[in-house]
Predict the structure.
Amino acid sequence: MPSIETLRPEKDACINGPVDRIWHTMATNPSKKSKSLDTRQKLLDAGLFLFGANGISGVSTRQLADCAGVNLSGILYHFGGKEQLYEAVAQQIADTTGAQIAATAAAIAPTLKELTREQAAMSAGSLLGRIARVILATPDAASRAGFILREQMQPSPAFDIIYHGYIERVHMLLAELVARALDRDANSEMVILQTHALLGQAMIFGMAKATILLRLGEHEFSESRVNRTVSAIEQITVKALSS
């Protein structure tokens, strides 16, 4: 049975620079191998790591530079300041998360109006399953979750970047599937609320990861655990929209 201590992140994770750890974790992904570890990307990675943990007000430019292993002047040169770096991190989250979900969404959208109620429920399950997989299997998922949760609770201009970057499109597509499965108007209050509830069930696995791991008696989301969780979310979604 895991303890809370085993689920906590490394206390001094930035001492050797999070960028090296992040890229070591991503090294098994061929799409990441050719990506240049330039100063700008190192700052984005360090920003995601630190902002995700402490928010913009809890991070200094010196901490960002030290964590990235670059000169302090690099922040001004590449971004103009800490606030601009924060918004650039938000854009990176929107771009990369959106790209990971795009293939599933693109396969559903063209056939949306032809789907039966049963097919719409299954497609909704597939879309939520894909979102859950991105949340659970992305190496920097904890940092993304921290960043997004803070923006949801206390929105800044960065929230608009994330919302319009991918959340809005995913929310609207899922609403169309929910509406078709339930034979209702996609713009009705009930469909929008049910869509949000369904989306929340996928996102909670990232936001409350420690709780579910303790309840399951596990230390981490292994590949098999991710697969089982995604399958459960898909089944729960289909059942919710088929009743």
Notes: Residues 82-108 form the longest helix (27 residues). Confidence is low (pLDDT under 50) at residues 4-12, 15-36. The domain at 18-242 is CATH 1.10.357.10 (Tetracycline Repressor; domain 2).
